[in-house]
């Protein structure tokens, strides 16, 4: 039986050591921090995890390490996106062999893709694995924008495509997914500042890197909201919001890795061409983390 995925879906960074190699002990500490705080799922190798900057051996190392260390404590949603359909399907099969709960697929392409090409891509990947597929729309990073009508149709028409992650930052699209799906298509918010409104619109969960830094507070927000304590949840989200906005200001690997040092966990620098955060914004980000945890 596939475990339900909902609530706080936490996205770990991929730590690197001083030599630039994947730091699996640091990754394990980060996973424990988030799981012990009560996150509902772990999603390695998304945008936050710098999947686009890992070679295939590193990608497999991180995928296997995350699933193995999580050890069934919470579901795992492994990002399997790659430039070609064949490579994405190969990664989906690898994630299945490691014991992942689900896979997430973001369309990556040098050339703009038509809806026919996107449909063929997602269908082939879904057919390559028995795991449920989360279709990920993030036009800000890919330049490919999939409308709600297309996304919901994929869920309805392609076996194994079971969930949508919507990261366009448009709350209207989330409401449209609910409308088109009759409230039966699970969708996840991938835009940090929209989390409160997304849950109100019917989101099944919030895909976020914020638990790398303030896991207890993010979990507390969701627990309050689920318990119907809307005023308390809204007040806590107001405290989280400046940090959430700052995290997306320069790209999540850059900001999260910078702020992690202030929490006592060094995940190294982002991989080139990404550069570490400059000293002044780094200090401002550290202050925001401290304010949330105060």
TrEMBL record:
Pfam families: DHDPS (PF00701). Keywords: Lyase. InterPro entries: Aldolase_TIM, DapA-like. SUPFAM superfamilies: Aldolase. One of its GO terms (molecular function) is 4-hydroxy-tetrahydrodipicolinate synthase activity. Belongs to the DapA family. PANTHER family: 4-HYDROXY-2-OXOGLUTARATE ALDOLASE, MITOCHONDRIAL, DIHYDRODIPICOLINATE SYNTHASE. This is 4-hydroxy-tetrahydrodipicolinate synthase. It comes from Nocardia bhagyanarayanae. The lineage of its organism: Bacteria, Bacillati, Actinomycetota, Actinomycetes, Mycobacteriales.
């Amino acid at each position: 039986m596939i475990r339900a995925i909902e609530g706080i879906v936490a996205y770990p960074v991929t730590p690197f050591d001083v030599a630039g190699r994947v730091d699996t002990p640091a990754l394990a500490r980060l996973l424990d921090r988030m799981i012990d705080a009560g996150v509902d799922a772990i999603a390695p190798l998304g945008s936050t995890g710098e999947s686009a900057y890992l070679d295939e051996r590193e990608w497999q190392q991180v995928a296997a390490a995350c699933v193995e260390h999580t050890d069934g404590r919470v579901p795992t949603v492994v990002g399997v996106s790659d430039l070609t359909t064949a490579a994405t399907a190969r990664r989906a099969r690898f994630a299945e062999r490691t014991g992942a709960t689900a896979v997430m697929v973001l369309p990556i392409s040098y050339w703009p893709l038509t809806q026919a090409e996107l449909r063929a891509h997602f269908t082939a990947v879904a057919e390559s694995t028995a795991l449920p597929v989360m279709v990920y729309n993030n036009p800000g990073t890919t330049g490919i924008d999939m409308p709600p009508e297309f996304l919901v149709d994929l869920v309805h028409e392609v076996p194994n495509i079971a969930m949508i992650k919507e990261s366009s930052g448009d709350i209207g699209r989330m409401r449209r997914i609910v409308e088109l799906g009759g409230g039966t298509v699970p969708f996840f918010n991938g835009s940090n500042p929209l989390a409160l409104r997304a849950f109100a619109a019917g989101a099944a969960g919030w895909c976020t890197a914020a638990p790398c830094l303030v896991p207890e507070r993010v979990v507390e927000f969701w627990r309050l909201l689920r318990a119907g304590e809307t005023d308390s949840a809204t007040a806590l989200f107001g405290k989280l919001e400046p940090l959430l906005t700052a995290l997306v200001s320069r790209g999540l690997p850059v900001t999260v890795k910078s702020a992690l040092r202030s929490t006592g966990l060094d995940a190294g620098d982002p991989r080139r061409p990404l550069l570490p955060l400059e000293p002044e914004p780094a200090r401002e980000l550290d202050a925001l983390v401290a304010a949330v945890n105060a």
